[in-house]
Amino acid sequence: MIMLVTGGAASGKSEYAEQAAAMLGGNKIYLATMRRSDEEDERRVSRHRALRRGKGFLTVERERDLSRCEVPKQSTVLLECLSNLLSNEMFDERGVGPNRAGEEIFAGICKLTEQAKHLVIVSNEIFSDGVPYEETVMQYQQILGELNQRIAGMADRVVEVVCGIPVMLKQEEKDGSLAVF
C-alpha cells in the first residue's frame, strides 16, 4: 500500500503519517530526509523523535540518494519528507541538481515500493499562497508539484491534513475501484 500525506507547515501531517504507519504493522522504518544545519533543525528532529518514541520505528537517515536505500522486505516505511529530500537533491552540492532531482527521487520511490509492503510518504503543500518567487524557488515548486502528482497517481490513498484534520482525497477500495472524496 502506498499512502501520500500532504499538508501545510505545522498542519499535523507528520503526526498523522506516523500514526498511520504505526498501525500498518511489520518492521517500521522511519526514513528521515532532513539535513540538519542549525539549532532549529536539531529541535525539529528532537521533536519528531519524541513523537515516534515507543512506536517501534527504526530511524534511517537518508538526506539524498534515495535509490541507494535498502529496506527489509515487507516492512512499513515512513518517508519524512519528500520536500526536504527534493531540497537536498536540488541545492546541496552533493545532490544531483535541479535537472535530475525529480527523476532520481521518483526512481528511488519506485525502488522502495518494490521492497516495502507499505510506503507512507509525507510531502508539504506549498502551492496555495499564489506569491511569485525567484526562479529557483519556482523551479523547486514545479518539481515538487510534479512529484506529488506522480506519487498521488500511483498511491492507494492520498490524505491532506488541514488544521490537524485528515481529509481523504483518494482511497482505493479492496475491489480496485477508487473512492475519491
TrEMBL record:
The active site is at H48 (gmp-histidine intermediate). One of its GO terms (molecular function) is adenosylcobinamide kinase activity. Its EC number is 2.7.1.156, 2.7.7.62. Pfam families: CobU. InterPro entries: CobU/CobP, P-loop_NTPase. Gene3D superfamilies: P-loop containing nucleotide triphosphate hydrolases. Pathway: Cofactor biosynthesis; adenosylcobalamin biosynthesis; adenosylcobalamin from cob(II)yrinate a,c-diamide: step 6/7; Cofactor biosynthesis; adenosylcobalamin biosynthesis; adenosylcobalamin from cob(II)yrinate a,c-diamide: step 5/7. GO terms for biological process: cobalamin biosynthetic process. The keyword Transmembrane helix does not apply. Keywords: ATP-binding, Cobalamin biosynthesis, GTP-binding, Kinase, Nucleotide-binding, Nucleotidyltransferase, Transferase. GTP binds at residues 7-14, 49-53, 61, 80. It catalyses: adenosylcob(III)inamide phosphate + GTP + H(+) = adenosylcob(III)inamide-GDP + diphosphate; adenosylcob(III)inamide + ATP = adenosylcob(III)inamide phosphate + ADP + H(+); adenosylcob(III)inamide + GTP = adenosylcob(III)inamide phosphate + GDP + H(+). PANTHER family: BIFUNCTIONAL ADENOSYLCOBALAMIN BIOSYNTHESIS PROTEIN COBU (PTHR34848:SF1), PTHR34848. Belongs to the CobU/CobP family. Catalyzes ATP-dependent phosphorylation of adenosylcobinamide and addition of GMP to adenosylcobinamide phosphate. This is Adenosylcobinamide kinase. It comes from Massiliimalia timonensis. The lineage of its organism: Bacteria, Bacillati, Bacillota, Clostridia, Eubacteriales.
